[in-house]
Specification:
This protein has two helices and no strands. It is mainly α. It has one domain.
């Protein structure tokens, strides 16, 4: 009941996942480093809270 079609779909899905991992890890990471993006650029700054009573 569709075993052959599901087999080829699973193969295509696996190949797509492998290419996605490749492009995310091995291409984009060095490109981001080359552009000078640092971890601190991606984190929101912490807002200082005033210790005042809320009325």
């Amino acid at each position: 009941f569709g075993g052959e079609a599901l087999h080829y779909f699973a193969v295509a899905l696996t190949i797509g996942i492998c290419f996605g991992i490749y492009s995310s890890v091995l291409v984009m990471a060095p490109l981001v480093r080359w552009l000078g993006v640092q971890r601190e650029d991606l984190v929101k700054p912490i807002k200082e809270r005033k210790d005042e009573a809320v009325v």
